[in-house]
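BUG: 3D viewer hangs when loading the predicted structure for this chain

Environment: internal workstation, default settings.
Expected: structure renders.
Actual: progress bar stalls at 90%.

Input used:
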Amino acid sequence: MARRWQGQCEWQEQHGVDDLDKLVLRNRNWSDRIKSNDPTFFERLSHQQAPEFLWVGCSDSRVPANQIMDLPPGEVFVHRNIANVVSPSDLNFLSVLQFAVEVLSVKTIIVCGHYGCGGVKASMSDEDHGLIDNWLNHIRLVRRLHRDEIDAIDGEPAQADRLCELNVIEQVKNITSTTIVRNAWARGQDLGVYGMVYSLRDGLLQHLVTADPLIGLNGRDREAIRAEATAG
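Structure tokens produced before the viewer hung:
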């Protein structure tokens, strides 16, 4: 008990109680703003969760799902990890996916990566990153699958951007390979799976790929994406 108390005191000295108080105050201000615009919002929200979207994104703090899509709480079911990886051995993710598809009956699954992803950049390095290297191997596999294309690109930043896109596309494939999604499609459930990439430079989403149960993966080439973004 004494050690725990000492540890708590050290944490408070390091971070400051004021920091936590500020967070609580910001929370109250946010709650007040919501209720001033919609007095029954939280009451309605507390009764039922019925989102239409499952967002599979990166844990990066600069990529918050609700804010990016300009949707309020309750509209997006979210799973995030380093570099938005879909691993068939990740029981955490599979549990989220099953709950979203079979219980919440979401209609749209979005796998969203982002340019400037630290996990993707780290996967391109031969440095020892410790435990995280076990996770980054998922992305290194994507790089090996597309090595010729990536190596043909001039400059590491551009290579990293393309790997971010390819990683999204591969993770969409991984989702559609799960029994959860295959079974949902087999029973005729209305469920779309989409791959997107987010730019930290301008805050915009770009659609990369759509997975359709009838025609498979419908991708869009990189030049078309770039041209659309430039025209926009």
